[in-house]
Write a structure and sequence with these properties.
The protein is mainly α. It has helices spanning about 1-10, 15-25, 35-55, 55-70, 80-90, 95-105, 110-125, 135-145, 150-160, 165-200.
Length: about 200
C-alpha cells in the first residue's frame, strides 16, 4: 500500500502541456496507456526498493518526507533540498536521491544545480543499469525548456529506447527535433547570405 501511494505521487512528476498539445496535433489519444502505467509503476517500485535497502530506516523516512514535501503545492523548497542534499552527501551513489534532488532544484528554479544533479543521476542510472526511462524523459524535458534542443533530443531518444510507449518522451522528441531542424535551416540561410555578402566585396 505504501509503495502504491508513493508511486502515485511519483507519477505526477510528468504532465507537460507542450507534449499534450503535440499529441493533440498528431491526433493521439490523451494520456498514457494502462500497460505503460503498469511498467512505470513496476520500475519505480524497483528503484524505490533499491533506495530503501541503501538507507537506514531513519534515513529512508527522511528521504520520503523530503520527497513528499517537495511535491506539495507552494511549499518552501529549502527544507526538502537540504534534506536531499544531506542524503546524497552521505550516499553519493544513491540514484533516486540525485533524481529527486534534481527535481527539487528545478522546482526552486535553481537551474545550474538542477542540471548538475540530473547529470549525476544520469551517470548513476547508466552505471547501475537501471533502465529508468522517466529520468531521461524528465531530464530531456528540462533541457528542452532551457533551449538545449540537441541535448534534449539525445535524452528523449534514450527514454524511447528503454520504453517505446513513453508518451511524453515521444511528443517532446518531436518538438526538440523540430527546433533542431529549424536552427539548422536558419544557419544554412545565414551562411548563404554571408557568402553572397562576401562576393559583393570581391
Amino acid at each position: 500500500r505504501e509503495v502504491e501511494r508513493l508511486v502515485t505521487l511519483w507519477l505526477a512528476d510528468e504532465g507537460p502541456n507542450e507534449a499534450e498539445r503535440a499529441g493533440r496535433a498528431a491526433g493521439e489519444a490523451q494520456g498514457p496507456s494502462p500497460d505503460y502505467q503498469r511498467r512505470r509503476q513496476e520500475k519505480y517500485a524497483e528503484v524505490l526498493d533499491q533506495t530503501r535497502k541503501a538507507l537506514t530506516p531513519s534515513e529512508y523516512d527522511e528521504f520520503l518526507k523530503a520527497r513528499e514535501e517537495r511535491k506539495r503545492p507552494h511549499s518552501d523548497s529549502t527544507e526538502p533540498i537540504a534534506a536531499l542534499e544531506k542524503v546524497v552527501a552521505a550516499h553519493p551513489t544513491l540514484y533516486l536521491g540525485w533524481f529527486n534532488l534534481a527535481l527539487a532544484y528545478q522546482a526552486a528554479e535553481k537551474v545550474p544545480e538542477a542540471a548538475t544533479a540530473y547529470e549525476k543521476a544520469r551517470t548513476l542510472e547508466d552505471e547501475q543499469k537501471l533502465a529508468d526511462p522517466s529520468l531521461y524523459s524528465t531530464y530531456g524535458i528540462f533541457l528542452y525548456r532551457r533551449g538545449d534542443y540537441a541535448r534534449a533530443s539525445e535524452m528523449l531518444k534514450r527514454a524511447l529506447q528503454i520504453e517505446k510507449a513513453h508518451p511524453y518522451a515521444r511528443r517532446y522528441l518531436q518538438l526538440a527535433n523540430a527546433q533542431v531542424q529549424e536552427a539548422q535551416t536558419g544557419r544554412k540561410i545565414l551562411e548563404a547570405a554571408g557568402d553572397q555578402g562576401s562576393d559583393a566585396y570581391r
